[in-house]
Amino acid sequence: xxxxxxxxxxxxxxxxxxxxxxxxxxxxxxxxxxxxxxxxxxxxxxxxxxxxxxxxxxxxxxxxxxxxxxxxxxxxxxxxxxxxxxxxxxxxxxxxxxxxxxxxxxxxxxxxxxxxxxxxxxxxxxxxx
Length: 129
Known about the structure:
Elements: E1 3-6, E2 9-12, H1 19-52, H2 56-76, H3 79-91, H4 95-123
Helix pairs in contact: 1-2, 1-4, 2-4, 3-4
């Protein structure tokens, strides 16, 4: 059998990769999507604020705070899929789906929070909930 390269691990043809191989790769992707949504959205919004004459640093800080929830939704791919996965895990008895979904949500929250923290460091303003 031939081996195919999948990330940093090998996968044999005809066999699905195990959860230990795919979950870290997938969760790091989710982390960086949420991170990029907060960081990119706030910085691009700051450019727009500068163009219309609003204070850019204050606007960047406010946008970073309000984009955190949308970064979570964008990183997971929609909240309906996550809820469906949790329901399947709880009621169909596939507990690995529950663990996987919770880990994905935590990865997205971590990425959004890291992006907001970097924005806070850049702007030197206090973030309010």
